[in-house]
Amino acid sequence: MNILLIKTRYFEREKRSVWISCMPPLGISYIASVLRANSYKNVNIIDMEVCRMSFSDLEEHLLNVSERKRYDVVGISALTPTMNNVKGCADVIKRVFPECVLVVGGAHPTLEPEDTFERLPKVDFIFRGEAEYAFLKFINLLDSNKRNFESVDGLCYKRNGGYHISDRIVCIENLDILPFPAYDLLPMNHYFDAITPSEKCSMLMTTRGCSYRCTFCEEPLLYGRKVRARSPKNIVDEIELLKNKYGIDFIIFHDSTFNYDEERVEAVCDEMIRREVNISWRVKARVDHVNKRMLWKMKRAGCKLIQYGAENANQRFLKLMRKGITVEQVRRAVRLTKEIGIDVLLFFIVGYPGETKRDIEKTINYAIELDPTYVEFCIATPMPKSEMTELVKENIISGNLGDYYQWNPVISYDNLTSKELLKLYHKAYLNFYMRKDYILKMLTEVRGKSSLKMTIKGFLGLVTYSGPFKLFSRTRAKFRSE
Length: 482
Description:
Blueprint: E1 3-7, H1 26-37, E2 43-47, H2 48-51, H3 55-66, E3 73-77, H4 83-96, E4 101-105, H5 107-111, H6 113-119, E5 125-127, H7 132-143, E6 155-159, E7 162-164, E8 201-204, E9 207-208, H8 219-223, E10 228-229, H9 232-246, E11 250-253, H10 262-274, E12 280-285, H11 292-300, E13 303-311, H12 315-320, H13 327-340, E14 343-350, H14 357-370, E15 374-379, H15 387-392, H16 418-433, H17 436-445, H18 448-463, H19 473-481
Parallel strand pairs: 1-2, 1-3, 3-4, 4-5, 8-11, 11-12, 12-13, 13-14, 14-15
Antiparallel strand pairs: 5-6, 6-7, 9-10
Helix pairs in contact: 1-7, 3-4, 9-10, 10-11, 14-16
């Protein structure tokens, strides 16, 4: 059986900025590795994003392939903002391989299976949840010409003019049983991170699940509220594989909250130090699980950057977001991290329900006061099934899922229109990054021409979403090629 797994383009435009990070598609890579470990060797992956592949490029490629073989099953990963691209991809696949079984999975199909079927009429099956072993069971059924699909957890399909929607969303309890992602099926030399001083980056997952209840986030709905963690040995084994086989020198840990358990963080760091992996990395962390001992071990193990969700300057809005942190905890975490010598990136949300222009300007000033290495401002975006979506459902102004990006407002309030919100978003970036003191500090901290290039690369990578910086768009590709 020939199986193809596809990561479609993230953006609808044909060309993407080279200043926006592009990381390996871990989801379909895990599925590929599980299939290959269970005798299905004819598995391929196409990452349209890293290859900058248009739909016409994809069709040409598949037509060439069809002269030698046909794909029996094609799977596509789907996020909410990529649904339009998934549809375009599905149309191409069914034109070239009309008899193939077409499957989609990922965040949007998991949370909105009926909507996914409606938007993607050519799709045959949908998977909800962590599909690595469920997909294997599905392939086994197809391979043996069996059709008892209801036995497959998380599998949805068309039936009797309607849809069978599985409510058994899979969460894999022991993540150590997963084989490492099928990195050998990916162009590992072409992935990059916009804000790290490396041309050889990769992403790595050490946990799934989130026990927190932030109103703007769908993570617990996708992976459950119970956090499941890989063992330190298993994590470092994969790091060594990435470093020794693929030359990776920078790791981006994909976990939503790397430091949910401070003792576990120390155990992972101890394993990295003991085995002398000597690799740099960055993580996302919470400000309420920070202590000096943990930070010191993280730095010693190679951590270069910690990303904290500060979100808002107003404690009232942090409470409304159910973030579970305080403004003082943010200040403390930033101070301790900077004292240890680790760079800080802070996330902020602008346009949360109930915010005024004055509230957002207070958050902008708060970001400047905290003075992290980087900031990233995100416009509040109503993602499927999140609690915030219910709060703003009357304020949503776009039904085009291709608009649902953090730099594009799809909500408009009586006291804060989408145009006003976008102006404040641009102002936030300009006020933070265009400070004379900030620019001088960044320039004085670089070491040589290469370091200067990477500093500018990191800066542009963060602000490339912001309208005022689109003037750089004509020079980015040239700068990267030099």
